[in-house]
Amino acid sequence: xxxxxxxxxxxxxxxxxxxxxxxxxxxxxxxxxxxxxxxxxxxxxxxxxxxxxxxxxxxxxxxxxxxxxxxxxxxxxxxxxxxxxxxxxxxxxxxxxxxxxxxxxxxxxxxxxxxxxxxxxxxxxxxxxxxxxxxxxxxxxxxxxxxxxxxxxxxxxxxxxxxxxxxxxxxxxxxxxxxxxxxxxxxxxxxxxxxxxxxxxxxxxxxxxxxxxxxxxxxxxxxx
Length: 224
Hints:
- This is DUF2490 domain-containing protein.
- With 224 residues, this protein is mainly β.
- The protein has one domain: Porin.
- The chain has 1 helix and 13 strands, in the order H-E-E-E-E-E-E-E-E-E-E-E-E-E.
- Strand 11 and strand 12 (192-203) form a beta hairpin.
- The longest helix is centred in the first third of the chain and has 19 residues, at 2-20.
- The relative contact order is 0.18.
- Residues 1-24 have low confidence and may be disordered.
């Protein structure tokens, strides 16, 4: 319970930081997350994120991420090795440019439950192969799901979701960015859910908002 209170405190502090920051503009992220069992211990992670400068078709970034994970305990404490391809199209002095990044990453995810509160921690190390550079980055993600009309995350359950994630370079400058998120989700069935919310990202003293819609698919590839 003490650990849970500390987790909530971290989330609230991050929300307060995001509220203070200035110079905000709004984008939209459309996301698909697949986490599919391929055996009792192994899982296949697959993910696509289509990120826009606005709600339309002005592409900011296309991210494709995949990996193979292994559960150290039953359905928990997952370690994963993965690869990501990132196509970015930022505006530089009013003109669009194009950058491609290849990324290898290692991560560890652990989950706990405190009453109605479902908590997730993710620790991720990334080796980023940029077009003209190589960088390493550490990310820590603290997420929370709270079912609303049921005590568990059962089919046809509405839930509230929140997370905070910070990014640190392993060289200077150390701070990269921080993300704070809040959403409402719906559990479609035991393997699928959908979520819609708002994420605020602070990077280099810039505060940018993103509307997010995410679909989560956990349909196993095994008969069991």
